[in-house]
Write a structure and sequence with these properties.
Distance between the termini: 67 Å
Structural class: alpha/beta
Bound molecules: nicotinamide-adenine-dinucleotide
Radius of gyration: 23 Å
Helix content: 25-40%
Largest sheet: 7 strands, mixed
Strand order of the largest sheet: 14-15-16-13-12-18-19
Number of strands: 22
Number of helices: 15
Strand content: 15-25%
């Protein structure tokens, strides 16, 4: 599965009207594994975004995508998922080259997960409709769902293809056109993703990609009057700015999937320690910690804490940092130097605040050109420290201990974030008490991490977001509802 990074053909440009379109000025894009330039993308101006959105709106209107029989839309999306799988190696290589996803994960997880997500939403197209509602006997009341027209999507860099599928699949299945702005750090794989959508039969112009910086291209997309709804995944600060723009530019609805600081709450009766440690380790090291749902706060009951911490430390010693194009790599780089400096500064800050690094605390001692950071355990922390309060977005786990259940639950609650949580106990009553109490959009019991159950919506409470991706909720969020009353 190893591949030669310089042998990969990298597409570039915007994708508008069913084809790649050039446009300047350009932004160089680096490979995270060795920091070498892999290509460049145009940096769309507000005028270019305007043309892309006008084009999408016209294509949406004239193609009849929104009024097409739902089963026909479903068939096109199913064909698209099949084409993604048929081209899985090409796409996985492009994804691995340009992001932090190791080739094995990109091929065996991200690609099939992306295709299956599209299939889930394709199946929604003719399953969820409106309502006939109780009104006077001499009338008929109905609530009719309709697509918005053009949905704008702004995506982050951590899982470029699967994040794009979370945004695009429900919007398209519900009959909208879409203009997607990927992260300027990971702009390439979605171009091939979009080409395959058109090959599958999606009318040209119904799925578009505009490239560029968030502050310019992203903001212009959000503010465009023909964009009916915004779907955003990224940091809490950017989400707040986008929500403000949505309020000021058309009072348009917005879905925000934002950051987190998710707890892993472990009780003494959690069971087999090696198995438990494996869950905790996967929870905070997956994608080198660059995952929104990362379980970065270990909150562990005193009776099991030293045994568990020893086992976690033992397990993380097996990680092999390496370039994403090598199959043996099981620990990827951080996305770029800026992010690596941020992670290291957060760790140094914690140590200056009095924390102790039980392991890690620095870069891996490798000279690959990328920025590889060691899995790090920070003990001696408290709820007031920045390392516990703020999202680090790297492989850093803080460790806090507690005595009784009430104390553990109080520590698990975060003052600002509420994206996900893990609860580990063999006591069903305690688990369900914790599920009720924890303020988070997802609570996993005796596991940590997503499954392929696309029916479970994902999205945060509090500063972690607004609305849901995945699930029936994400499909419905791409529709607006019209009330109709017919007098006989
Ligand atoms: P980011 O907020 O820096 O950027 C996200 C996207 O927004 C990029 O495409 C960027 O170009 C664009 N953008 C930036 N400023 C903008 C503006 N003013 N208007 C419009 N668009 C703008 O986030 P990131 O660094 O790419 O991603 C990491 C963050 O994403 C983390 O906080 C992580 O927790 C979060 N995330 C959340 C989820 C979730 O489902 N909740 C999933 C993945 C990532």
């Amino acid at each position: 599965m190893d591949f030669e990074p310089d042998s990969i053909r990298v597409p570039t440009g915007h994708f508008i009207g069913g084809q790649l379109v050039a446009g300047g000025p350009t932004i160089d894009v680096l490979r995270p594994s060795d920091s070498r330039v892999m290509g460049a993308i145009p940096d769309a101006t507000a005028d270019q975004v305007d043309r892309a959105v006008q084009n999408a709106h016209e294509a949406w209107r004239t193609s009849g995508w929104g009024t097409r029989a739902p089963r026909e839309r479903a068939r096109v999306l199913m064909r698209w998922a099949d084409l993604l799988e048929a081209n899985a190696m090409e796409l996985a290589q492009l994804e691995a080259l340009g992001s932090t996803r190791p080739i094995k994960d990109a091929y065996h997880f991200d690609l099939p997960f992306t295709a299956e997500c599209i299939r889930f939403f394709a199946e929604c197209a003719d399953k969820f409709g409106g309502d006939a509602v109780p009104t006077r006997a001499d009338s008929l009341g109905m609530v009719l769902p309709e697509p918005y027209g053009v949905v704008g999507a702004v995506a982050p860099w951590n899982f470029p293809l699967s994040m794009a599928s979370w945004k695009c699949a429900p919007a398209l299945a519900a009959g909208n056109a879409i203009v997607l702005k990927p992260s300027e750090l990971t702009p390439f794989s979605v171009l091939r993703f979009a080409e395959l959508a058109v090959e599958a039969g999606l009318p040209a112009g119904v799925f578009n990609v505009v490239q560029g910086r968030g502050s310019q291209a992203g903001a212009a997309l959000v503010r465009h009057p023909l964009i009916g709804k915004i779907s955003f995944t990224g940091s809490t600060a950017t989400g707040a700015a986008i929500m403000g723009d949505c309020a000021r530019h058309g009072t348009k609805p917005v879905t925000l999937e934002l950051g987190g600081k998710s707890p892993q709450l472990v009780f003494d009766d959690a069971g087999d320690v090696p198995n438990l440690a494996a869950r905790i380790v996967k929870g905070f090291t997956s994608n080198a910690g660059q995952a929104c749902v990362s379980g970065t706060r270990l909150i562990v009951q005193q009776g099991i804490s030293s045994q568990l911490v020893d086992e976690i430390t033992r397990q993380i010693a097996q990680f092999q940092p390496g370039p994403t194009w090598r199959a043996a790599t099981n620990f990827p780089p951080l996305i770029n130097e800026t992010q690596a400096r941020k992670v290291h500064a957060a760790v140094q800050g914690a140590l200056a605040d009095g924390a102790q690094a039980l392991c890690g605390g620095d870069y891996f001692d490798v000279d690959l050109g990328g920025h590889f950071y060691q899995p790090t355990l920070l003990a001696g922390v408290d709820a007031g420290m920045a390392a516990v309060r703020e999202e680090i977005f790297g492989p850093v786990l803080t460790v806090q201990t507690f005595g009784d259940e009430e104390e553990g639950l109080a520590l698990a609650d975060h003052p600002t974030y509420g994206l996900a949580a893990g609860v580990h106990t063999q006591n069903i009553s305690r688990a369900l008490r914790a599920v009720r109490r924890i303020q988070a959009g997802t609570v996993w019991v005796n596991r940590f991490g997503r499954t392929w159950d696309f029916i479970l919506p994902t999205g945060g409470f509090k500063g972690s977001g607004l609305g849901k991706d995945l699930g029936r909720q994400a499909f419905e969020a791409n529709l607006r509802y019209k009330s109709v009353l017919v007098d006989f």
